[in-house]
Design brief:
- The chain is built from 14 helices and 9 strands.
- By secondary structure, it is of the alpha/beta class.
- The chain has 2 domains: about 170 residues, Rossmann fold (3-Layer(aba) Sandwich); about 210 residues, Up-down Bundle (Dehydroquinate synthase-like, alpha domain), CATH 1.20.1090.
- The protein is globular, with a radius of gyration of 20 Å.
Length: about 375
């Protein structure tokens, strides 16, 4: 076995109603004045009361920054950090989906030091202390609560990553109750996003390791058996919601240590240029990327077949089992009624070369792909799903 390193959030709490424990946990972190980072949808849905009530009962002062948007731009991140400084916050809570948690991570770093945002981009560039940080995911998809990564929109169509162990929170509270009201389309797209995390971690060219493999398989097993139920009966099927919430976290741990690759690299330009939600972007390019990668990792895809289709009988042939794995995933995407073409997202055919060129800028991700991806390959993938 080769040497490897594995890092994750040091404190995890999973369970029905565990968001109510936030106040107790924040007290243990020494917090007295907290800023909650969230988005307008969470605030309008009334979910914040489940967090605010225990904070009030514990006498912990708090303020709310609820201006996070999807694909958060630098201006939003800076405004949130300014708000935290103004109120003298001594801890940050991220309460929401991936964008919210990414902003909360960076705000904790910015408000805890004097390092400017522009100096944080890249790998290992976050310096100095950060404020205590608690993350509470309200979707089952990004796994941001257990990853040392935050993605920020840096221009009209460009994004950049901040990657540092300092972005791992002190504690993640995973309460499946918070996901019961997620609409079917959001449940489907975030669920596929999390499944992509598991698949790409399992086949990553760099830093693939036995621990991340174990997490990826378990994540894929749980989400494959529960995504349809969560989409079609998500307000009542608590077990399915719990599987998705837990599975997304496991997949997040896996890809934080065995990084993602071409699916994400080709998804990012769709978000940057056409504001396609990240999970849906992944779902759109997943099938052609799997087919492209199959010659290089047929044996690994074959190993994942039982995770996505427990009833499948191995053909005893890696190529055939690989095909069955890809077919099973395609059937799942159909069953949860996600869009299947770029055309459905208002992408124009003449934009495909531009998207392919932009995908080539994601070398941080493409180097992890099990098969080399050139610009002509990216263009062919986009054309296949157009």
């Amino acid at each position: 076995m080769h040497a490897f390193t594995f890092q994750t959030t040091p404190g995890l709490r999973f369970g029905h109603g565990c968001v109510a424990e936030a106040a107790e946990q924040l007290r243990a972190l020494g917090a007295h004045s907290v800023m909650i980072v969230t988005d307008p949808g969470i605030a309008a849905a009334g979910l914040l009361e489940r967090l605010e009530a225990p904070l009030r009962d514990a006498g912990i002062a708090f303020g709310v920054f609820d201006e996070v948007v999807a694909d958060p731009p630098e201006a939003v991140v800076s405004a949130a950090a300014d708000r935290a400084r103004e109120r003298g916050a001594d801890a940050i809570i991220g309460f929401g989906g991936g964008s919210v948690m990414d902003v909360a991570k960076v705000v904790a770093a910015l408000a805890g030091s004097d390092q400017p945002l522009e100096d944080m981009y890249g790998i290992g560039n976050v310096r100095g202390p950060r404020l205590p940080l608690v993350l509470v995911p309200t979707t089952a998809g990004t796994g941001s609560e257990v990853t040392p990564i935050a993605i920020v929109t840096t221009g009209e169509t460009t994004k950049a990553g901040i990657v540092s162990p300092r972005l791992l929170p002190d504690l993640a509270l995973l309460d499946p109750e918070l996901t019961l009201g997620l609409p079917p389309a959001v449940t489907a797209s975030t669920g596929i996003d999390a499944m992509v995390h598991a698949i790409e971690a399992y086949t990553s060219r760099h830093r693939k390791n036995p621990y991340s493999d174990m997490l990826a398989r378990e994540a894929l097993t749980r989400m494959s058996r529960s995504l349809r139920r969560a989409v079609h009966d998500g307000t009542r099927d608590f077990d399915a919601r719990a599987d998705m919430h837990y599975g997304a976290m496991l997949a997040g741990q896996a890809f934080a240590n065995a990084p993602v690759a071409a699916v994400h690299a080709l998804a990012y330009p769709l978000g940057g240029h056409y504001h396609v939600p990240h999970g849906l972007s992944n779902a759109l390019v997943l099938m052609p990327v799997l087919r492209f990668n199959a010659p290089a990792v047929a044996a690994l895809y074959a190993e994942l077949l039982p995770c996505v289709d427990p009833a499948a009988h191995s053909a005893g042939d890696a190529a055939k089992d690989c095909d069955a794995f890809i077919t099973a995933l395609g059937r799942l995407i159909e069953d949860v009624a996600l869009p299947r073409t770029l055309r459905s997202q208002k992408v124009t055919e003449d934009a495909l070369p531009m998207l392919a060129a932009d995908a080539m800028l994601q070398q941080r991700l493409l180097v992890n792909n099990p098969r080399d991806v050139g610009e002509s390959d990216a263009l062919a993938i986009y054309r296949e799903v157009y």
